[in-house]
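Model the whole thing, not chain by chain.
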Amino acid sequence: MAGTGIFTEILDGEVYKYYSDGEWKTSSSGKSVAIVNPATRKTQYKVQACTQEEVNKVMEMAKSAQKSWAKTPLWKRAELLHKAAAILKDNKAPIAESLVKEIAKPAKDSVTEVVRSGDLISYCAEEGVRILGEGKFLLSDSFPGNERTKYCLTSKIPLGVVLAIPPFNYPVNLAVSKIAPALIAGNSLVLKPPTQGAVSCLHMVHCFHLAGFPKGLISCITGKGSEIGDFLTMHPAVNCISFTGGDTGISISKKAGMIPLQMELGGKDACIVLEDADLDLVASNIIKGGFSYSGQRCTAVKVVLVMESVADELVEKVKAKVAKLTVGPPEENCDITAVVSESSANFIEGLVMDAKEKGATFCQEYKREGNLIWPLLLDNVRPDMRIAWEEPFGPVLPVLRISSVEEGINHCNASNFGLQGCVFTKDINKAMLISDAMETGTVQINSAPARGPDHFPFQGLKDSGIGSQGVTNSINLMTKVKTTVINLPTPSYSMGAGFISRL
Ligand code: NAP
């Protein structure tokens, strides 16, 4: 159970502690933040509302701990990460339980998130050992006008303090996807977890604590992003921000100083369906892509753009599958569970009502109880409807009928977002041309968009992000290239003639 067994020390009465200087602490603010269970709408957990002074202290310690961590041998850093991964996987049950209660993620998927996170940490440790253990050796005479008098040695060095801010929908996985690359690269790490998901993150951080990382190297500051966020992101001690979330990321980018940013933001992933597509395959992928975790995934299918000639058949197939989706509590592994908050549910309802007023065809009756919204397919959506462009982050999927592939590509490219997209066709040559034309970070051919496997590069264009994620790319983003140039008085050629005579 959450907060028991090895996790007892992270709880103070009914409020979870924050993590600083290798210890679990109660904030001097005397205030806490409530985490509301999305399904019951009752307070499930409480976390500390940390103060600015506590942030200052954490940053100070992160700066000093990083200096000795950067001198810790790479193999040793990797060893500690493997240890944390093992502890995390061994304790998947209480962490998954908090995911169920905080973000209403179905129980089975919650376990998968924790296990996947352990695997990500281990993969990152292995990859880090390889890519950080190698540098480059360059010779000057390859550039015109130079003789072989300069030897350039390059290596990757850490940035310093990395600030990690993950979103609610994958709080554990998207936290470790920042923590592991930062640590293997020799950085220290300050985590600000999402409020919904904070307790799962605190349990995960305790696994790192138990693995024996040095004091001050990892910290976890809790509190509402709207209250403590600006202070954290504009803190002078921060050398890199790795953020995943919505539009908040755009405002952080405008406020952050001259530091590397990794921004993984929203998306409006289009699914383009051609006339020759395998419609059963498309329908299964639309269900998986559009309705898994109730559509609360950055890479969910968020608009279907289907050729008019096959639209009726596809809509019928998807409708039949929607009818089979189970709706209810996450504890019972229902396909559709309550969305994260009342304000999210209200926002989704606003999009649905706008589509209704403007004449979309409802394939199911719209139904909502509290934060629980029944899956809904909206056919005959037109570009003047908000749902054609906005990210519902809920179990509501619009279908736009198109009369040409160009129309589909133009709709996809007119979006402010450019995260992923997918195209369904049996013609690989056409698929490649469409992929090239779509202005998105990734295009999936004959499958729904997806972030994983976690070592694949993952990036958004336009308002969907800055930089690229994926194990290797994250490690590279959290390092700088350092070069040392050895200048020789005379050109030197390995095994070249005249070597002895020049001595
Ligand atoms: P969000 O509202 O932007 O919140 C993300 C994180 O930012 C949370 O930890 C939040 O803390 C924090 N935050 C809020 N205000 C802040 C501020 N002023 N300064 C610093 N941090 C602040 O996003 P969300 O609702 O959690 O997640 C949904 C969004 O994430 C969707 O748009 C989705 O597409 C996107 N997403 C993108 C990816 C990707 O990889 N591209 C993956 C998953 C999700 P609090 O919880 O305390 O407010």
